[in-house]
Design brief:
The chain is α/β, with parallel strands linked by helices and about 525 residues long. It has helices at about 15-35, 45-55, 60-65, 80, 85-95, 135-145, 160-170, 175-190, 205-210, 220-225, 235-250, 280-295, 310-315, 315-330, 355-360, 380-390, 400-405, 415-420, 430-435, 440-450, 455-465, 500-510, 510-530; strands at about 70-75, 95-100, 105, 125, 195-200, 265-275, 300-305, 335-340, 370, 395, 425. About 45% of the residues lie in helices and about 10% in strands. A hairpin with a 4-residue loop joins strand 2 and strand 3 (about 105). The longest helix has 21 residues, at about 15-35.
Length: about 525
């Protein structure tokens, strides 16, 4: 606004002075007449503006990110995703006992015929079914089964407590897997997630026995393992998933008019290979995973799990990567995601940080990397980053897990470096039950720590489906860019209820594209409310 003082113009006549007062008005009118009208912000722009306005408000930020479509969680161990309270409940149903000193499940004594049907526990142990009546012990078990309230102390690090939880809550019956699926998909649906790839180990009957007496030689062991009937357990593993999915559908009333939102969360499974076992068993587990994934479309990949800094894991790592590379050549349709670089300075000697990510990329030819925390400590890290970008190797980023296990966070985490070098990334939870988090928590952490904007978030969410192991062609013409759809859908509004005939045919032929189309619809609905 223009302000004038009369004292500034002592010799100006009233008429001239009045004309001077009008000059700013005429000038503003002229500028306004010649200026283009302000464009109305698009729903996407309004949504981005809201994120900026609430960035400093943690509660509002969490609500925004909980409602925002998040695509897929690609790095999620099913057992580790279940909350401790659920394990306490099912431990009671399974007649397990609790070692009060170790704060861990134990097996009950065999029930003698004609005796009480109640489990008989060792001296000092109590039935797990009694835990809810003892709030103090109940709370102690939740802390023991998770990172809740954990404070590092002499001899007990976050790393040790985290990995120690799995042995403490283990021992529950595999029949609960369907209940676990229902819990995890219910949590995912409440956060606007639509797809999960869950790591799990199905039951088998003969795999451990097959390798007894064998010694690791080389990949020729495959023929011997198959001749001994390794693949005979594939039907049992498929039946395991049949039962689990049946229970999940029953719990969610899937297909009924009042079905639970969890029913709409698509799931696939990644077969786990325990890397801290003898080489011949590691190879057998990997071979079984490739055989199972070839026979069951619900199982889309294999992954090597267990602590990467374990003695056997470190000593045999290079051999493990050669195993995977060999088997990939025989089973080219089976995907691979590998825990690699879940290491940090001090956890292992400096020279042991040299090359785990590189060997996973170059030797095992992995499709994705889980964690990749030590990448900048590897030999020629910038060359490796460029190679990962060129090969489109996505990194599954687990911020909270890396903090509580490795004490790596903030500027010490390579997440910004991966993004800077064009390596695709997606946020994931790792073990949300053990960490007492959810995927929304990881998004909040990423926004607050790395100043991500809405475009950054959409990029990662789209990448989570682009690099999923769902079958079929991508909706997008180029990965990472997400600017143009394939030609069959080029003239369509992405995510619309009624795609064109050509686009509908394309979507029907690709589960991946169908999920990507659904994601665009979710973005449209989310942004329309801003």
């Amino acid at each position: 606004m223009c302000r004038f003082r009369v004292a500034a113009f002592p010799r100006t006549s009233p008429i001239v002075f009045a004309l001077l007062l009008l000059v700013p008005t005429f000038a503003l009118a002229e500028v306004a007449a010649g200026a283009p009208p302000e464009a109305t912000p698009t729903p996407e722009q309004r949504t981005a503006q809201e994120l900026e306005q609430i960035r400093a408000d943690p509660l509002a930020l969490r609500d925004f990110l909980k409602r925002m479509p998040k695509g897929a969680d690609l790095h999620n161990h099913l057992d580790g995703a279940v909350y401790a309270e659920t394990f306490i409940r099912v431990g009671g149903e399974d007649d397990l006992c609790v070692d009060q000193a170790a704060k861990a499940f134990t097996k009950a004594q065999p029930v003698v015929a004609g005796a009480s049907p109640q489990p008989v526990c060792e001296a000092g142990d109590i039935p797990a079914a009694e835990i809810p009546k003892n709030q103090h012990l109940y709370d102690a078990l939740v802390d023991s089964f998770s990172m809740r309230g954990f404070v590092p102390s002499e001899g007990v690090t976050g790393h040790d407590h985290f990995f120690g939880t799995f042995a403490k809550f283990g021992g529950t019956d595999p029949r609960h897997t369907g209940d676990f699926l229902h819990e995890v998909t219910t949590r995912a649906a409440a956060q606007n997630e639509q797809y999960l790839e869950l790591m799990e180990t199905p039951t088998w009957h003969r795999l451990n026995d097959i390798t007894k007496g064998m010694a690791w030689r080389d990949s020729a062991l495959r023929d011997e393992l198959l001749a001994k009937g390794l693949a005979d357990d594939v039907p049992a593993a498929r039946a395991f998933w049949d039962e689990a999915q049946s229970v999940r559908r029953e719990r969610g009333r899937c297909g009924a008019a009042d079905e639970a939102p969890a029913c709409k969360v698509e799931t696939r499974y990644i077969n786990q290979v325990f890397r801290n076992t003898p080489k011949e068993l590691v190879f057998a587990l990997a071979l079984f995973g490739f055989e199972l994934a070839s026979a069951d479309p619900r199982v889309v990949a294999i992954n090597f799990v267990a602590t990467e800094d374990d003695y056997i894991s470190m000593a045999d790592y290079a051999e493990h990567m050669r195993m995977v590379g060999f088997l990939r050549g025989l089973y080219p349709k089976v995907y691979v995601s590998l825990h690699a670089g879940e290491l940090a300075p001090g956890l292992v000697p400096p020279e042991d940080l040299c090359c785990h990510v590189r060997q996973a990329v170059e030797q095992a030819k992995t499709d994705r990397i889980g964690h990749g925390v030590d990448v900048m400590y590897e030999d020629r890290p910038y060359d490796l980053l460029k190679e990962m970008a060129d090969k489109h190797v996505l990194v599954e980023i687990n911020l909270t897990s890396n903090d509580v296990i490795l004490r790596i966070s903030g500027t010490g985490h390579p997440f910004p470096i991966y993004r800077k070098f064009g390596v695709p990334v997606a946020l994931s939870t790792d073990d949300e039950g053990v960490s007492r988090i959810d995927l929304t928590h990881e998004f909040v952490r990423a926004v607050e720590t790395y100043d991500l904007d809405y475009a950054d978030l959409k990029q990662m969410v789209r990448a989570s489906l682009e690099y999923s192991f769902l079958p079929g062609a991508s909706l997008w013409q180029q990965p990472e860019i997400f600017a143009r759809s394939v030609s069959d859908c080029r003239g369509d509004v992405l995510g619309s209820e009624k795609p064109s005939v050509a686009c509908a045919a394309f979507l029907n032929a690709s589960e991946k594209a169908e999920q990507q189309w659904q994601l665009e619809r979710r973005f449209h609905d989310f942004e329309a409310n801003h």
